[in-house]
């Protein structure tokens, strides 16, 4: 009987830890429920009209639109997988990125999105964005140093852009678009109109790309 109470306490603590872990995971990314999830977007081509690709060239048969949050760990995990699939199918696919910072749970996501767009004004969007997925936001961010190491030529201009929130309009528009479309979490991909929500493996992504190329998804 002496060991019963410590065992009960241990059991309760383990259960609490599991509950907290699940709650955090749901906050970071939650899969849309079957009844509310958007599965296809009919007018998906309008999402890329006049938009500059993050990877690839316009006119590719497979168009991937990524709704992402730089502070989202699942987005960070998805990035190398998406890069691998793109490297293998670069002649057939193009990737566009929409900023969808989940500001209620990610304190630095909105500023990171603004910064990436400021870097993009000097042609360093891709390099800067790649760095954002690698940093530890909990330790703080030296935006100017990050810009310099990402190839931003005029760091002072970049800093002014970020301080004055000159790219807020485009980030706000993209976030609003995601909400209007019914996108409920990050990462979410729209591949030739088909919505793929959540973390995807290289194999899953490649299958989705090949299906789209074969016109198995909505076009």
TrEMBL record:
InterPro entries with a match to the protein in the record: Thioredoxin-like_fold, Thioredoxin-like_sf, Thioredoxin_domain
Domain Thioredoxin: 20-215
Matching SUPFAM superfamilies: Thioredoxin-like
Keyword field contains Transcription regulation: no
Key word Disulfide bond present: yes
MF (Gene Ontology): isomerase activity; oxidoreductase activity
Pfam families for this protein: Thioredoxin_4
Bilayer-spanning residue ranges: none
Alphabetical keyword list: Disulfide bond, Isomerase, Oxidoreductase, Redox-active center, Signal
Domain of life: Bacteria
Family: Belongs to the thioredoxin family. DsbA subfamily.
The protein's name: Protein-disulfide isomerase
Biological source species: Oleiagrimonas soli
């Amino acid at each position: 009987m002496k060991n019963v109470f410590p065992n009960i306490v241990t059991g309760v603590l383990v259960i609490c830890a599991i509950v907290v872990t699940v709650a955090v995971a749901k906050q970071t990314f939650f899969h849309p429920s079957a009844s509310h999830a958007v599965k296809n977007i009919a007018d998906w081509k309008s999402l890329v009209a006049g938009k500059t690709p993050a990877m690839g060239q316009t006119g590719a048969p497979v168009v991937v639109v990524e709704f992402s949050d730089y502070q989202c760990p699942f987005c960070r995990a998805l990035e190398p997988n998406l890069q691998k699939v793109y490297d293998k199918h670069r002649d057939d696919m193009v990737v566009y990125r929409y900023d969808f910072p989940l500001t209620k749970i990610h304190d630095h996501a909105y500023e990171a999105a603004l910064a990436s767009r400021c870097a993009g004004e000097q042609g360093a969007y891709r390099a800067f964005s790649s760095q954002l997925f690698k940093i530890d936001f909990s330790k703080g961010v030296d935006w100017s140093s990050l810009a310099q190491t990402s190839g931003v030529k005029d760091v002072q201009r970049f800093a002014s852009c970020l301080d004055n929130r000159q790219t807020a309009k485009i980030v706000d528009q993209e976030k609003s678009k995601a909400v209007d479309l019914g996108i409920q979490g990050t990462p979410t991909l729209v591949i030739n109109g088909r919505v793929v929500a959540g973390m995807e493996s290289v194999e899953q992504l490649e299958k989705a790309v090949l299906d789209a190329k074969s016109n198995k998804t909505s076009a």
